[in-house]
Specification:
The chain has three helices and ten strands. A hairpin with a 2-residue loop joins strand 4 and strand 5. Helix 1 packs across helix 2. It binds guanosine-5'-monophosphate and magnesium ion (MG).
Length: 175
Amino acid sequence: MKLHDLVFEPYINEDEINKAIDKISNLLNNDYKNETPVFLSVLNGSFMFSSEIMKKFNSDCSIQFVKLSSYEGTSSSGEVQELIGLNETLAGKNVVILEDIVDTGNTLKKLDRILKEKNVKSYKIASLFLKPAVYKGTIPIDYIGIEIPDEFIVGYGLDYDDLGRNLTSVYRLKS
Ligand code: 5GP
Ligand code: MG
């Protein structure tokens, strides 16, 4: 499969993705059943994951969006830009950050700063994918879907220069 100039190969199928999401959903349903959480979806990559988590949540909840960007092509630029900020109030809320993938952790560090300024009551992090070998942060990731090695993946919301987000399974860069 080709996107722009690069070739990708099948890596994680829909079944595995659905299982990972079910696992996270079950935990969230249990941990937040009396809490009315605010899901904070980190755009663009986590729109598909966020939609599934929201559909599978069984009690009252709401959703907000923030748009952050750190990736250029196939690697992290090290700098996180806030492209669309949060304008609704989050003070006193129990927030669950929904991330597509945690890589270096720069995005989480930025979100941590943003949420502390907003005086949230609590926040936890759910990420569909994690690259444990690359993550150098100290912020705990409370709900992890699938751990992967340091590889560049696309699909299920994740892009390579804007393409590939519509793929229903995940592909990795072919070496
Ligand atoms: P971090 O700030 O943790 O380094 O990176 C987080 C963001 O970078 C993710 O939310 C995602 O948008 C992007 N990213 C990290 N790894 C990958 C990857 O393997 N593939 C794609 N498409 N994006 C990634
Ligand atoms: Mg992202």
